[in-house]
Write a structure and sequence with these properties.
alpha/beta; Rossmann fold; 7-stranded mixed β-sheet; two-stranded antiparallel ribbon; 5 helices; about 30% helix
């Protein structure tokens, strides 16, 4: 079975579509097979997007949505955090096509950039915030490389937000982030999902 972190999925493309409300806004997302959570917004991404919006209403910096999939988190942040710019990166070329389509459909295409990159391979910019729902199935080494790269690419004072389930490694993620950043706060937890934030000092 093809994984959602495959660079060039070979399965025949089947398009799906769903809508999702956050506060008073309705978003529309096109998805496909061989991308993460094709049938609807997964709970972890939903919780992460809602938490970041709630905590950063006046945020006006540069955001990286790392491992963006078809773009729900980055698109929601671009819509709500109107002073920000968002780069969305993923290794999966099919997901990136959907990202561009979804950015246009949700009228944020002028404030987002879609970038093909395996982890931080093609990412050279610095950011004020990195958000990620990391690809757990890719293995712990890959997940931890997300955190290490985020630390390197964050500006001083920048924040890394991570969503992860307790049963999929939340305790080891908290230990890793505390070691890397010198801090790690649990800013929300619900239904077994934890939202961690670490700040680069």
């Amino acid at each position: 079975m093809e994984q959602y972190f495959t660079k060039n999925p070979s399965t025949e493309k089947e398009l799906y579509r769903f809508d999702w409300n956050i506060d008073e806004k309705k978003f529309y997302f096109n998805t496909s097979n061989s991308v993460f959570s094709k049938s609807g917004m997964d709970f972890g991404s939903m919780l992460l997007a809602e938490t970041v919006v709630k905590e950063n209403k006046e945020f006006d910096g540069r955001i990286l949505d790392l491992g963006c999939g078809y773009g729900p988190i980055g698109i929601v942040l671009a819509s709500f955090l109107g002073k920000s710019t968002v780069t969305m990166s993923d290794v999966n070329e099919r997901a990136l096509e959907l990202c561009k389509m979804n950015a246009r459909e949700n009228s944020v295409e002028n404030r987002v950039r879609v970038l093909s990159s395996s982890v931080f391979e093609n990412i050279t910019d610095k950011f004020d915030m990195v958000v990620t729902n990391p690809p757990i199935r890719a293995g712990k080494d890959v997940v931890f490389s997300f955190y290490e790269g985020a630390y390197d690419q964050l500006n001083s004072g920048g924040k890394l937000y991570v969503v992860i389930q307790k049963k999929q490694g939340a305790p080891s993620t908290k230990t890793k982030l505390s070691s890397l950043f010198g801090n790690c706060e649990t800013v929300d937890k619900k239904s077994g999902y934890f939202i961690f934030v670490s700040i680069k000092s």
